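To: structure subgroup
Subject: Chain for Friday's discussion

All,

I'm putting the inputs and outputs inline so they're searchable in the archive.
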Amino acid sequence: MLDKIFKLKANKTNIRTEIIAGITTFMTMAYILFLNPNILSATGMEKNAIFFATAVAAGVVTIAMGLVANFPMALAPGMGLNAFFATVAVAGVGMPWRIALGAVFISGIIFILLTVTRVRQILVVAVPNSLKTAISVGIGLFITVIGLKLSEIMVVGTHIIPPTMDVLKSAHGITSLKFFEWNIGLGSLKNPSMLLCLIGLLLTAVMMANRVKGSLLIGIIATTLIGIPMGVTVIPAHFNPFALPDLHKLAVGALDVKGALNMGIWTVVFTFTFVELFDTFGTLVGTAKKAGLLDKEGRSPKIGKAMLVDAFGVSFGALMGTSTITTYVESAAGIGEGGRTGLTAITTGLLFLLALVIAPLATLIPNAATAPALIIVGVLMVSSIKEINFEDFTEGFPAFLTLALMPFTYNIANGIAAGIVSYVILKACTGKMKEVHWMMYILFVLVVVRYIFLTEA
């Protein structure tokens, strides 16, 4: 029955592989269950309410992705999008969080309309293969940066630069200023988290080199266990693995759509929509390409259904009480384990729902245990860079900007936007305008409008 539903044989996979892949995906993105409440609680929302919304929304929408689109993709509140949500709805400063949820709900409706009218599907045809490949590579680098930061192999900090006297005596009467400069460096082996990550990274890499099935999942579990005597994996006193979270003060249905419309926040809605459009497109195409789910021209009949589920997820997440639901780049971890069908997604979705019951167990997995999997997935995705024709500068330069800006600006949408603008300009200036799909010109205009007129100084 499962073979008929998910077409396992046609996709050259089996039940065991799909389940392992689903568990692996969950393990690499389970951090969102606890990180999202920490971020969104700045708006005045209750942490337990956010935890509930995160687990239920991620579980239901991911299961829907498996059943409707038969894609091995998992969805959850998006990183970056939740930070933006918290910024515009920060307690006592921005708009009330209920109205911000209303804005997210509206952006989801917009996505549903764009998907039903097949505008989003046209993107898959419109974007050239060089940019599609660059998106896959850029996401790989992006995932690697996430892994390096979680493991504390890469440390990011700031230091104050004293201002010059010329600046101090400005025309505006400023008498003191503080300037900050970012420092990015290598962590210390004296840090047990970094040491544990290196152990897990080498252990997982050796298993990958020997083609051990389930290498990423085994690596996460083994690293978590090794972290116990090292003091990184902390088991609290009176630990109860089956303690239910406090479900009081849930935010289900607490969104205020009418308030969002009356507040005139279309710039906020547009930003949610714009970022989600490119983040989801990039993740879907990038991970689907790596999984071999796209044809030679970079197309798939499943993309439309996947986008519809994603669009539904945005509004559903807002109804549950969380920021924008989006497809996760960590889905690549399950794909790396051989996940090829919706059974992978369903497995991941069920684990998110199960997390409501065994939430304390998920808290035991340290960042240092999931970071190695993310770094290795980055290696797998970057390998497709050889498909980009860098000899043709009109193809190579936009591709390079795409894959470089994703990790360096810590934003998938920025990389895609830069690729679109540079691709259209170079083709137009070299007499190759006919090679550019008409939709690319529309995207060009939207990107320019977004970054010039809707970006704060």
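Points worth raising on Friday:
Residues 2-152+187-238+255-453 form one domain.
The chain has one domain: 2-152+187-238+255-453.

D.
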